């Protein structure tokens, strides 16, 4: 007997709900069409569905995101790093309380090595009366960050291999929900036998028609809900005879007006909830300039230095998106001006390394660098702003301003001395300044974000 099963998948939506009305209508219509043709349809998400950049996610700590997944009848999900390390321990532990789908993540444990009750290594889903699909999940092993939040994350490959071997005995087809990145997906296909389909995420890659490697079909649907992935499984005599993949661009598709209205209401409710939480009252405006030191950026640099108990504070002005006006300041204001899921970090650097960073940060290329990623949700890097650092610059013959002298807390920078520098974790994990990225001693402060430090500093 021949059967056809369709798998739809999303990944790395990052709370970009601008396409969600199209996605919702498309998936609902497809579900009705498949039901009318007596075809099975499954729906999976491969992590980073939530992102605290959006006020809905910020105010509800992702629970509204889970409700949206419930509304569309997702069959299983795995977690990404945005679920795993931008929520505190209790928030993640309770995130899926109302979920009407299983969460599969084979490499996440509590500190004592016991799996959390809401996380399964795999599930077996009866797609039809005679064909079962085993679904295994794994997420990126940001071990140190998970440990700071009270979790234990382990390297995924041994766990995946064991889970695949076990589920293969119970299922006719094995699908891996992999929030590991394209390179790791290729490694899974090459080294773990028994995997039929890998639905990929994390590196925001797109496979327009899938990619076959070692008889495993790799699939991925990009980022921000621009695409929905579709996998067609052709079953013959209860065996998978062929699998093919494509993605659907949802941009031109019709929108669900009901879902659109629901999102508007959710956002209004979330903004009202954030606005109700006042953190301070300002007696004066706090202006902001992305390309020069300014009071608001100076305040954040000072907050970083104090919070981390460091020699200096250092932050790029571009993490602040707008100034603060005199009067009440609420969590809505702080989320609006600093929406990034960025944590404080303290790093030990030799004076010579610190000097290299200051010189590089002072270049026009760095100040005007436009980028996204590593938690940064702004527009441009902006001026590097310091607390505890004084820079003497002069106009040279080339018509450019050049740094002539650097003072650290009133004393000339000592190239041989080790300084404790408070900054953001994006510099510690990203490729912006190699001296910070490769530093041997780094201390991360979690679960606080930069906006939490601003709230703390303003409340003083």
Task: Report a brief summary of the structure.
The protein is 32% helix and 29% strand. It is of the alpha/beta class. Strand 21 and strand 22 form a beta hairpin.
What does this structure look like?
This protein is an alpha/beta fold and 460 residues long. It is 32% helix and 29% strand. The protein has 16 helices and 25 strands. Helix 9 (257-275) crosses helix 11 (331-337) and helix 11 (331-337) crosses helix 16 (450-459).
Spatial order of the strands forming the largest sheet? 7-8-10-11-13-12
Q: What structural category do the secondary elements indicate?
A: alpha/beta
Radius of gyration: 24 Å
Strand content: 25-35%
Oligomer: single chain
Please bin the fraction of helical residues: 25-40%
Ends distance: 72 Å
Largest sheet: 6 strands, mixed
Helix run count: 16
Mean pLDDT metric: 96
Number of strands: 25
Uncertain runs with pLDDT below 50, 5 residues or more? none
